[in-house]
Amino acid sequence: MTDRTPRPDRPRIFSRTSWPEARFLADVLRTETVGGGLLLLGAVIALVWANSPWEASYTALGKWVPWAGGEALHLDLSLAKWSGDGLLAIFFFVVGLELKREFVAGELRDPRRAALPVVAALGGMALPALIYVGVNLAAGGDGLRGWAIPTATDIAFALAVLAVIGCYLPQGLRAFLLTLAVVDDLFAITIIAIFYTDDFSPLPLLGALVPIALFALLVQRRRTWWWALIPLAVLAWTLVHASGVHATVAGVLLGFTVPVLRSRDGDTHGLAEHLEHRWRPISAGFAVPVFAFFAAGVSLRGADLGAVVTDPIVIGIVAGLVIGKAVGIFGSTFLLARFTRAELDQDITWSDLLGVALLAGIGFTVSLLIGELAFGTGTAADGNVKAAVLSGSLISALLATVVLVRRNAAYRRIAQAEQVDANRDGVPDVYQHRKG
């Protein structure tokens, strides 16, 4: 039997976070569980509608342009484009707040603790990309443009699945998945900005710095006037969109400007946490599900399923999400532990990590977005991308469920045998007396 006795001379990975971080994580999981359910509902409605006799009405709804007069500002967008370029900016604004918080006051502020999710995220993005490139390089064609599609992890969907099937799993695993997904989003944003920007115009992008700077000035002074901040955010989004850079980048930049630490006036929470609390339900409960509704509606009526299954784009995406993500995250974490002589926390096993690594293969939202940017909305390749992302994400979720349900049952038995009481202050003893 393996000796899991902690050795003080070895660094530990997946160790329990602080009590404030645990409470924050619990709040995130509650929101993302509901958001993940709504996201799934939107995707299912889209799939059913797109494969029904009323398929034409679904397509027409996505192509409808509500503001045809916005051509001068490049805002004559269809509803489907508004959901991807507009509503997802809200999602990425929340991501920007999360990133700022993690680097300033969260797990990523400590380089030693940050090393694990950063290395795991890099491994979980590099290997899927390499698998995709290998498959499509051998096949030739234009498929290589989609190399980044299987690199993304859907934070809402993954956390929702984890919250539903793993309520007894160690808190360190949950924190790892959240931090991994946040770092993953940062790299995904960088990839979108650098590799999927066409017809770049520098002047609008430079002009966007003005409303972003004014937004930053107000939030740094704790001036949360909605009548000023929202118009500035919309103006920044419009100018970034006009520059050719994907407009969701504006949401991240605005999120980065918000201060994280509490002010000296005795604020209970920092402004970033306050705004995240306000905007996360809108992001998880509306913006992302609506995007999923317009993005996931792939029609398989009359399609040559044999050609779809053998398409190198489909094979590369599915293999990247299911195999590349799991092996990349698990392997990079194992190598980090091997070469730094770090050990898993005594409450966690490598089987737990495998389950979380498989869960990270759910690439839904950002993968669909990158697919649209790579091949264009409504193209044959775009339809195959949607089918591949849905299939790969579903397979990853099912495999992760098999592993994590088994591990969750084991931890439930432990929890029932060893009831942990809480102090009168409501803070569990394990957070007050933990070592290291």
TrEMBL record:
Question: Which reaction equations make up its catalytic activity?
Answer: Na(+)(in) + 2 H(+)(out) = Na(+)(out) + 2 H(+)(in)
S-adenosyl-L-methionine recorded as keyword: no
Mind telling me which Pfam families this protein's record contains? Na_H_antiport_1 (PF06965)
Localization per Swiss-Prot or TrEMBL: Cell inner membrane; Cell membrane
Keywords, sorted A to Z: Antiport, Cell membrane, Ion transport, Membrane, Sodium, Sodium transport, Transmembrane, Transmembrane helix, Transport
Any stretches that span the bilayer, and where are they? 33-52, 72-94, 114-135, 147-169, 176-196, 202-219, 224-239, 245-261, 282-301, 313-337, 349-375, 387-405
Q: Name one GO biological process term.
A: regulation of pH
Which terms in the Gene Ontology molecular function aspect does this entry carry? sodium:proton antiporter activity
Q: Which GO terms describe its cellular component?
A: plasma membrane
Main subcellular localisation: membrane
How is it placed in the membrane, per its record? Multi-pass membrane protein
Question: Hey, which family's this protein in?
Answer: Belongs to the NhaA Na(+)/H(+) (TC 2.A.33) antiporter family.
- Output the NCBIfam families linked to this UniProt entry: NhaA
The record describes the protein's role as: Na(+)/H(+) antiporter that extrudes sodium in exchange for external protons.
PANTHER family linked to this entry: NA(+)_H(+) ANTIPORTER NHAA, SODIUM ION/PROTON ANTIPORTER NHAA-RELATED
Name of the protein described by the UniProt record: Na(+)/H(+) antiporter NhaA
Q: Which gene encodes it?
A: nhaA
